[in-house]
Amino acid sequence: MALLAALILALVQREDVRLTKLAAQLPGKALQSSKVKQLHRFFKHIRLSEDVLARFVLSFADPTERLWLVIDRTFLGRTDALEHACPQLASGQDGDQYPARCRHPERAGPAADVDPAAPWGQQQLRYPQCVDGSRVVGLPAKRIAGLLGDREFIGKKWFKFLNKANVAPCIRLKATTKVSGMPVWALFQGIPAGEVRWWYRPLMVYGVPLRVCAVRDAHGHLLYVATLEHGQHALEAYSRRWKIECLFKFWKGSGFDLEATHLTHSERLSTLSALVTLTSVWAWRVGAAEHERAPIPVLAHGRLALSIVRYGLDTVKAALTNVLWTPTETLFVRHFLATVAKP
């Protein structure tokens, strides 16, 4: 536990997941090479339970609120896809999302045994192990508003699996996807920009009866969504999916530089993802509290100048610096600890 806490503090200070960078931030008089070996042993032998991690993340959500799950995957440099299911935690601030489950496929290199062009739901269904028919990533089915996913998360086995598990999909379709025997693009022709249309009755989508709606964006692209929701509500729900892209951007580019990791073993990557998740949740909690005390400026387009997580991470870094250089500033330390402990 002491090393885990030290790693979280190191990750906050360095914003870099490379072991050499984290080792340089660890306390103690051991040589840098010894600390790096210690971290290699940690990631080799320590496993953080996905169920415990999910329950920890979900503990910050309103227990009476129904949550949307967002599923997506991203690539980490020389490793294969990192798959996530993320409940949207309604923080009342920025609608940030945090992973309740992180799973790495058991294969050595990119697309070693899966055709990237094949529908995701037909690729051995590794991820749906997190669904057992009554609970998903630690949530009872009655608390799940639905599951949001992009066009790669399609396929007959996948849709039937969700239907059997009583998880309502809200998933984007490819234009060529067959619905009740015809391509979906044929149902929605001549839609002007900004207009929403939906089919008047449910259609069979990969063997499951679902409502299908479409909208054309300002760039002329058509978006097709299969869902149990109706029309405008479906597209409003689907619009929440983009925030997982913001999460990946923070993890990889503007936050922890996750792509720089040299870890390739799936279990070690899962441990690293859990570490990043714990640090992100801490930053989010601090950022939300700090935003109440000193609100983040709102830009002309109506969005915050900084994300809640970025704001929290900067606040924690500043606090650690102040504790290091001005340990007698007890008032500042007391305020920081009260902020972190705030329920």
Please write out the topology.
Elements: H1 2-14, H2 19-25, H3 32-45, H4 50-58, E1 67-75, E2 81-87, E3 101-103, E4 135-136, E5 139-140, E6 144-149, H5 156-164, E7 169-173, E8 178-179, E9 182-183, E10 196-198, E11 203-205, E12 208-216, E13 222-227, H6 232-238, H7 242-254, H8 266-293, H9 308-325, H10 330-341
Parallel strand pairs: 1-6, 6-7
Antiparallel strand pairs: 1-2, 2-3, 4-5, 7-13, 8-9, 10-12, 11-12, 12-13
Structural descriptors:
single chain; 343 residues; alpha+beta; 9-stranded mixed β-sheet; two-stranded antiparallel sheet; 38% helix
Structure report:
The protein is an alpha+beta fold. The protein has two domains: 1-46; 49-170 and 232-343, no CATH class. The protein contains ten helices and 13 strands. The chain has helices at 2-14, 19-25, 32-45, 50-58, 156-164, 232-238, 242-254, 266-293, 308-325, 330-341, and strands spanning 67-75, 81-87, 101-103, 135-136, 139-140, 144-149, 169-173, 178-179, 182-183, 196-198, 203-205, 208-216, 222-227. Strands 1, 2, 3, 6, 7, 10, 11, 12 and 13 form a nine-stranded mixed beta sheet that branches. A two-stranded antiparallel ribbon has the order 4-5. Helix 5 links the parallel strand 6 and strand 7 (169-173). Helix 1 packs across helix 2 (19-25) and helix 2 packs across helix 3 (32-45). It is elongated.
Number of structural units classed as domains:
2
- Choose one word for the global shape: elongated
% residues in beta strands = 15-25%
| Quaternary organisation of the protein chains | single chain
Order of helices and strands: HHHHEEEEEEHEEEEEEEHHHHH
> Gap between N and C termini, in Å?
22 Å
Structural class: alpha+beta
Gyration radius, in Å: 22 Å
